[in-house]
Amino acid sequence: MYKRGKSLVAITAASVMLALTACGGTTESQVATASEAESVAATSDNSLINTSTDESNKVEADAQDKESEEEAIPALRDCVEQKMGCRIGCAITGKEPWDIPLWNLVTTHFNAVTLGNELKPDSLFGYSNGKCPGTQEAELNGETITVPVLNFSNPEKILNKLVKWNEVHPDREIKVRGHVLVWHSQTPEWFFHEDYDKTKPYVSAQEMDKRQEWYIREVLTHFTGDNSPYKDLFYGWDVVNEAVSDATGTYRTDTENPNEDLSNDTHGNNSSWWHVYQSEEFIINAFKYANKYAPAELELYYNDYNECVAKKREGIVALLQEVKSQEGEPGVGTRITAMGMQGHYSVDSPSYTDVEASAKAYGDVVGNIQITEWDLSSSDDYDGSAESKEKEYEKMRKTYNLQYYALQSVQNSGVNVTGITFWGTIDKYSWLQHRSTVGGGSNKEKAQCPLLFDDLYKPKPAFWVFAETN
């Protein structure tokens, strides 16, 4: 159990943030105000020397009451470690790390995070999706090639905050999962074309090999290389994401959605990787290049959604078997550490037996599985009202409980469950509150409450499923 002590100034900062968030949501100006409050909390207590004794005593009493309340809430990182012996993480993205109450949840309850968007290809190209941001020359295997300019500033804003946290709290470090190197979505279309211009023809598979190897080398070296300030921060990386088709259960192609034009700046369904290669060769190459440039201790994953659907499960197993069959030394063969089961489920499905069966099927091939993006979309009759919320929260608790039980059963069967990550922290920031065209997305008009903490940063009944250690 984690006990957080608070100075008088820290309570003042927290009070400012609570006042801001009480009206729902945190605007940019509110975050700035909260950051100012946080800065005040970091200054000397001498700045409050004129505070009256009565007022000081009242604030200190309130702080003690708050500490007592927090002491009654166990830290999930301790509970899951005791129960499962694995990491527990959450996704953070955008300005979330500067939301003080949310950051307190992250640092109290989780020992791992995934950056929701900042390490995806479009982010690392500076979100210049419509046009290449510029080119430069690079050396690759003794050859000079022309490559697009990379921009690492988006993830570094968050990573720098995590590095500082770990320096100050070595006993409560937070590690990072890299997400993601190769993905059909959120990769600019120009990356696949001659002169990085989507109006020109696609490059050959041989040319794309060079681009893929260069990209994987640059990203992994920048964040995990010996000279990187982040080299001790990452525990693993999603090498390939969502390369299996929902419709066919085989590999995702360039016609997954016939109504989606390949000339779009980015894609939700169709794969330009497949368009160039017309085979799974790019998947195998990605794991070879990751093995070549990643430190030996960095875990490497395949990650996918709808992974408990029988037809798609068969396709994922086939992909894992192909990657596994070509394992070898760095620079020669592939390496894969675990299968990432995204876990974008609902309160109604999949059943715990489907979760168990799928995890065992993947574990039989690669040995380890992880839940990487866990959340539960709401039932059809949930409308967000106070009347329906209690009922929905109980449904969520039961579903999370059954699915967590399935993971324990898998662990007991000999398959290693090496990580659990929720796709967010508090409900109001969940991606399910917004329309999405990729795996697991929802209609933004539908009320959602998918995570372990509510809009007021309080634990929901589902929280206690993972706080149980017996």
CATH homologous superfamily heading of the largest domain: Glycosidases
Q: What fraction of the residues are assigned to beta strands by DSSP?
A: 5-15%
* Total beta strand runs: 11
Strand line-up of the largest beta sheet: 1-2-5-6-7-8-10-11
Specify Rg, calculated over alpha carbons.
23 Å
Number of domains: 2
- The outline comes out as globular
Overall average pLDDT: 87
CATH topology of the largest domain: TIM Barrel
Describe this structure in words.
This protein has 470 residues and is an alpha/beta fold. The chain is built from 14 helices and 11 strands. The chain has an 8-stranded parallel beta barrel with strand order 1-2-5-6-7-8-10-11, surrounded by 6 helices. Helix 1 (8-21) runs antiparallel to helix 2. Residues 1-53 have low confidence and may be disordered.
Short précis:
By secondary structure, the protein is of the alpha/beta class. It has helices at residues 8-21, 28-41, 53-71, 76-84, 100-109, 121-124, 153-168, 205-224, 272-277, 281-293, 310-325, 352-366, 386-413, 463-467; strands spanning 87-92, 112-115, 135-140, 143-148, 175-183, 234-241, 299-304, 338-341, 344-346, 368-377, 416-422. Helix 8 (205-224) runs parallel beside helix 10 and helix 11 (310-325) packs parallel to helix 12.
Keywords:
470 residues, alpha/beta, TIM Barrel, disordered N terminus
SSE blueprint and pairings:
Elements: H1 8-21, H2 28-41, H3 53-71, H4 76-84, E1 87-92, H5 100-109, E2 112-115, H6 121-124, E3 135-140, E4 143-148, H7 153-168, E5 175-183, H8 205-224, E6 234-241, H9 272-277, H10 281-293, E7 299-304, H11 310-325, E8 338-341, E9 344-346, H12 352-366, E10 368-377, H13 386-413, E11 416-422, H14 463-467
